[in-house]
Structure to design on (282 residues):
């Protein structure tokens, strides 16, 4: 009888000991989980502020470019003593000799071919403009007697329409999104495509660049690399400024969505700061 009671006592004691160890192991596991949660929350906060900083930088770059455009001095011609950022308006002149042989049917004064790469994200797959790759540029033009040359241009006009009037017949089947404002000509399906900007003789344009001793040179744009200098081309100053304003509005909308995520974090920081100040004063 005594041995039976001792056995029961040992069994219950072992059971309690097992439950105590199990409870301890659970309590030990909680800090690990909370640390992992804090890590991921901290990472999301960092990414949020990083994205917000990038968007604000984009807005600032666009605002500076809009200021550069609006303050460009309007000139009719360049002389040896003309220097600084200038704006020249008039009709594009020159010989239409630029062409992408085998792809496009027509020739242009100036033709710039931009590369697009296939990219997939949660919203879907499409060709994305690869602005880091230097475009191919053919041709040159003159406006008001000013020769316009650059290794790269920033166009504010629409992309060249791609249809039966502009594309070789054997390339028509490779047109992607032909009815949009950004039609492309596919070179390798789901890999590479190209879009075009073009100018034709007699087209009314506005050109902005840096005048140096009577010559028009490319300018360094805000937010671009020091080696990426361009001449701006658009139909008018109003079109250029409108384009930059649309960019700024889009950036501000995106920044607003990011701020919605970060507001609780900022409010929490402010509350902690006020509590610390209250503690110091008390």
């Amino acid at each position: 009888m005594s041995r039976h009671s001792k056995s029961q006592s040992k069994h219950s004691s072992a059971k309690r000991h097992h439950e105590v160890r199990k409870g301890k192991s659970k309590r030990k596991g909680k800090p690990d989980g909370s640390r992992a949660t804090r890590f991921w929350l901290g990472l999301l906060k960092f990414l949020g502020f990083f994205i917000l900083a990038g968007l604000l930088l984009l807005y600032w770059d666009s605002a500076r470019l809009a200021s550069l455009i609006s303050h460009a001095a309007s000139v009719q011609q360049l002389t040896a003593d003309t220097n600084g950022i200038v704006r020249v308006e008039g009709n594009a002149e020159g010989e239409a000799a630029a062409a992408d042989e085998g792809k496009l049917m027509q020739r242009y004064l100036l033709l710039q071919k931009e590369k697009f790469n296939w990219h997939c994200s949660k919203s879907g797959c499409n060709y994305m403009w690869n602005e880091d790759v230097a475009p191919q540029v053919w041709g040159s033009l003159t406006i008001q007697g000013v020769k316009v040359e650059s290794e790269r241009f920033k166009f504010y006009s629409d992309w060249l329409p791609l249809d039966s009037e502009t594309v070789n017949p054997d390339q028509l089947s490779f047109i992607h999104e032909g009815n949009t404002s950004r039609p492309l000509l596919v070179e390798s399906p789901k890999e590479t495509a190209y879009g075009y900007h073009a100018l034709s003789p007699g087209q009314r344009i506005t050109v902005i660049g840096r005048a140096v001793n009577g010559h028009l040179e490319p300018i360094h744009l805000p937010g671009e690399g020091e080696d990426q200098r361009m001449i701006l081309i658009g139909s008018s100053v109003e079109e250029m400024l409108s384009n930059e304003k649309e960019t700024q509005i889009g950036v501000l909308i995106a920044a607003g969505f990011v701020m919605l995520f970060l507001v609780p974090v900022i409010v929490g920081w402010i509350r902690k700061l006020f509590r610390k100040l209250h503690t110091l004063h008390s």
